[in-house]
Design brief:
mainly beta; five-stranded antiparallel sheet; 3 helices; 36% strand; globular
Length: 272
């Protein structure tokens, strides 16, 4: 069932003769991993001991694939100690993300950390870091879990993903959807519930599940799905890169341009 395991810059695949092959040979408490499977499965990972809730992490500038060392849910604001907030520019989960905002705190669909989940922590500097996990006894924060399940009906999760934080969309209403595309292929989507919207865009990671998804350096397109109709949107959209977190101030309805033109004879009155 498991076709591969991917860590931060390391991986392993099963081999009938040699067992697991690759540079990834052990699972660490402080790290998180992508588990690639060929079918849905309920699976218990067996460990020798629980990770301590005060585990120290060595964080480098850039993207760090890390664990959440607690058996409790915890809101992002409670989990991140104040002294570390300035060094964290974003957080990415599986199909969900959050970025800090000076006015509203953390914005995006990722509102809480959950046990058995891993996260990309995007840091602006090297730090020795501790989650504030020991003092977090649970959370009533909203979760995007149900929304992610809806999304998965239309596109597959990729190990390469980026998020476009869209602050405003022309004529959008509660319940409308913003979808990201690579050509005609849907590669992400999010239902608008007000506020800043983090629309995922899934990249081609080489698996059959992501064939036709966007490649690094390409620019995705966005459409508003409203009243059963797709409306093309235009705006200043950055090119895709894995683990990218992009702010898009606004999207507006694209002006339709003619694809072809022709010149006919002036008839019957040539002066017209």
């Amino acid at each position: 069932i498991i076709t591969g395991v991917i860590g931060e810059g390391t991986a392993a695949v099963p081999n009938e003769t040699f067992g697991w092959v690759g540079s990834l040979y052990e699972v660490l408490c402080s790290k998180a991993y992508w588990i690639i499977v060929n079918q849905d499965v309920l699976w218990n990972m067996v460990g020798t001991e629980l990770c301590p809730c005060d585990l120290e992490y060595t964080i480098h500038a850039g993207a760090n694939l890390v664990s959440w060392p607690s058996q409790n849910d915890c809101s992002i604001g409670d989990a991140i100690p104040d002294e570390f907030e300035a060094g964290i520019s974003g957080l990415i989960g599986e199909g969900t993300a959050a970025v800090p905002n000076e006015t509203f705190g953390w914005v995006g669909s990722l509102a809480e950390f959950r046990p058995t989940h891993g996260y990309w922590l995007i840091a602006s500097t090297d730090i020795f870091y501790n989650w504030d996990a020991c003092s977090c006894s649970g959370s009533l924060a909203r979760t995007a879990e149900a929304e992610i399940k809806i999304n998965s009906e239309y596109f597959n999760q990729s190990t390469k993903q980026a998020f476009y934080f869209i602050e405003s969309v022309e004529n959008i209403e509660i319940g409308d959807w913003i979808l990201s595309f690579n050509g005609d292929q849907v590669i992400g989507g999010r239902e608008w519930q007000g506020g800043t919207l983090d629309v995922p865009a899934m990249g081609d990671d080489g698996t059959e599940y992501t064939t036709g998804y966007i490649q690094t350096g390409k620019v995705p397109t966005f459409k508003l799905f409203k009243d059963g109709e797709y409306i093309d949107l235009a705006g200043d959209i950055p090119a895709f890169a894995s683990n990218g977190l992009y702010m898009v101030p606004s999207l507006s309805e694209a002006i339709a341009l003619p694809e072809t033109f022709s010149l006919d004879r002036a008839y019957p009155i040539p002066f017209n």
